[in-house]
Amino acid sequence: MAARDPVCGMLVDPATTAYSVEARGETYHFSSELCRDTFIRGEKIAYFSMEIGIESEIPTYSGGLGVLAGDVIRSSADLLIPMVAVTLINRKGYVRQRLTPEGDQIDSADEWDPKEHMRELSRRVTVRIGDANVAIRAWLYDYWSPVGGLVPVFFLDTDLPENAPEDRGITDHLYGGDQEYRLKQAIVLGIGGARMLAALDIRVGKYHINESHSSLLTLELLRHPGMDEEKVQMQCIFTTHTPVAVAFETFPRDTAIRLLSAEIPPTLLDEYIGEDGLALATLAFRLSKYVNGVTTAHMNFSQQLFPGFHIRAVTNGVHPHTWTSGSFRDLYDRYIAGWAQEPELLVRVDAIPHEEIRHAHRQAKQALVDYVREKNGVDLDPEALTIGFARRAAAYKRATLLFSDLDKLREAGRRGAIQLVFAGKAHPADAVGKQEIREVHDALRDLDGEVTGVYLENYTMDIAGLMTAGVDIWLNTPLPPFEASGTSGMKAALNGVINFSVLDGWWIEGWIEGTTGWAIGPGPGAPVSEEERRRQELQDLYSKLEYLIIPTYYLRKDAWVTIMRSSIAKIAYYFNTHRMMRRYATEAYL
């Protein structure tokens, strides 16, 4: 049985190849001595992220940040970028959501067994947190690209018998606990993660800090002999995903000093922890040479927040093959050979006949209809205009904006049937987010009999795949400028689903009115009051739905498919992680 060379991606015969190596509890096979030696001694990009969404069954993600990290890993493997990834095991996940008929979210731990998905490594490292030595082990998940190479993902775990009970739980909950708990997680991820890579003899050329949770790795690097601030900066890349100052967490100085003083020399603590406390984002900005936001608009906002730093823009993307439904994969395979590895080829989608695009979408829509019937007992009409909205339930996402005027929504529905499919979890401590979910349920009950709607429980990557392929319109209504990027609409575009979105994040770059979709309200920099912004948003939301979207869907079917095709050709070809990782490789990694 053939194996794949993890360095060059070539198929090799394990029985005949002269080049193999035992490493981390696995045997790897190579096509040449050079590939084997590169695997053993070659420098790697170390990608650190608090959350990584690699499978629905591994609930170590909460939303876009983690799913993006998973797509980074997938594209890096496809493109043979020499990367390893580091995250926390999050044994109890983010939250398992159960919804009552009234829309109340019932929280429980989303527990899972690492042994069913990855293998435990024998190596241990220790970090001193306060007055306790905390042992850390790693679980290894090898992500193999079907067409390229390998990216190992190391999941750090403190649930070891030698640790105190409170320290065994440090890696249990994603974004759980109080500030002290979250700082302990940052120590394990940043300092412990850097030590684990060193203990595993992995040579790191660059450290990519995906959001600031892991930025303490910079202080760990500064402790190494011969290192100084400039040398650390040259090794570190920082991608910020946060668009507003209040979202950057600062840990109290006394807490930071107490937890870090046993590991970090006093001179470094005094230099990098201010009187107002430890800001992990500021630490990452100061000790990274390459810093980027995740869209052009986000770069501009970040530059205003941190005017002393040079900030670039690398717009996010999604992994093409993962987020393209089976029916559209088959369609692209027939007409656009090589699209998955070179998604820019999707610009040629005009070669695909309208009827074949319709057929592929009908198949994806039927899969969603079947899922809704099975899980919610609701019969959606596969011929009716279906609008999808799914993301973390947070106030700024404004899941309820569509329901601001139910009479206008009913009026639009009389021009043509509308169906609504919602999904999303609220953080267990987010009372406002939970209230948003209740209000969506209230609105759907009020609309019953006039507008069909469902709220899908326990949103996962698998449900995201069904929704972004199976609806007709992807709705996004964040409050600008809080959406640094967003990626769900990019997934939708891969499947010909049309975006209807507030002009924030990536949509500012992808939007061509009436060609790739429709905008809601003014741009984030428009000189209007918040009251006027909301008035314009509601005007666009209801008038475009009633007078543009519904008539086009029901009466101008060829025009509708033309927009679907334009969405693929002008969005999916560009807003993907293959393009994104090539940018990082040429600008930041080399």
Question: Short summary of the structure?
Answer:
This protein has 590 residues and is of the alpha/beta class.
Provide the descriptors you would attach to this structure in a database record.
590 residues; 20% strand; Rossmann fold; 6-stranded parallel sheet; 9-stranded mixed sheet; 3 domains; 21 helices; alpha/beta
Silhouette: globular
* Average pLDDT for all residues: 96
Low-confidence stretches: none
Over all CA atoms, what is the radius of gyration?
A: 24 Å
What would the CATH topology of the largest domain be?
Rossmann fold
Percentage of β-strand residues: 15-25%
Which CATH top level class of the largest domain fits?
A: Alpha Beta
Structural class: alpha/beta
Residues in helices, as a percent range = 25-40%
Structure notes:
The protein is α/β, with parallel strands linked by helices. The chain has 3 domains: 41 residues, no CATH class; 272 residues, Rossmann fold; 255 residues, Glycogen Phosphorylase B (Rossmann fold, 3-Layer(aba) Sandwich). The chain is built from 21 helices and 23 strands. The strands form 6 sheets. The chain has a 9-stranded mixed β-sheet with strand order 9-10-11-6-5-12-13-16-17. A 6-stranded parallel β-sheet has the order 20-19-18-21-22-23, with helices on both faces. The model has no long low-confidence stretch (mean pLDDT 96).
